[in-house]
Amino acid sequence: MAQEFIQWLSHPGLNHFLIISGILFSFGIFAVLTRRNAILVLMGIELILNAANINFIAFSRYGTGTLDGQVIAIFVIILAAAEAAIALAIVLNIYQNFNTVNVDELNQLRD
Amino acid sequence: MDLFTIVFYFLAIITLGAGAVVVFSRNIIHAAFALLFAFFGVAGLYVLLMADFIAITQLMIYVGGILVLVLFGVMLTSQVLDVQMKSGTIQTFPAVLVVSALAGTLVGIFWSTPWKTTAAAPMEVTAAKIGEMLLTSYLLPFEIASVVLLAALIGAALIARREKNA
Lengths: 111, 166
Fold this sequence. Notes:
The structure holds two protein chains of two kinds. Chain A is mainly alpha-helical. Chain A is 78% helix and 0% strand. Chain A has a single domain, classed as Orthogonal Bundle (Helix Hairpins), CATH 1.10.287.3510. The radius of gyration of chain A is 19 Å and the shape is elongated. By secondary structure, chain B is an all-alpha fold. Chain B is globular and about 55 Å long.
């Protein structure tokens, strides 16, 4: 068993990339769930999107052999850029109005 | 141990270590700079997966664009002169339970599923093929993405610049 595990460890393949993306995804979920600062929540979302992209590209490389996964990863990156711009604009606006960006203190839509 | 294995584990440690700092660091600036290394590690993993164009895109958009935006957000919304560059956490204990269950499930699935794989193709330049696919089979999503970006650009400028009592 131990021999098998070392053998598995020393030949990185599809599973290894998927496991890295799974751990990165869990980190992102943890940041989204526990962070009080809205910008750190956004960083967690970026980690989640990166984990999804690793999955797309790993399957594109080892699973299908075509480039469709890479094209979808490009769309994910495009949407991540749009999302970051909009979300940070909203956070700045919230900061101007409420003088805080802690998500647990923001409980009204207008002042 | 060939070179691929060594580089893979090096990049995996960078990515996951930096990701852990992003999640667990109490200092917002440390978290933002750790995000830089996480993005670099992911770009390296893309190179290992023979996705050269995506790796460059990752560096240009994530490191050059999104990370700078996030840093601006950190600087503009924290009292930098104050001692308060720290950020607390909430609901840590339930989150630890949920996230470890989630991580265990995901890693278990990824570990044990006998994925149907094909033999890895030799390295080739992907940019030309991706460009061709974007203008043929993915033309509609490509155009929609450009409209989304335009809308996001205008919307972000409008939201961030709004006067307080306009």
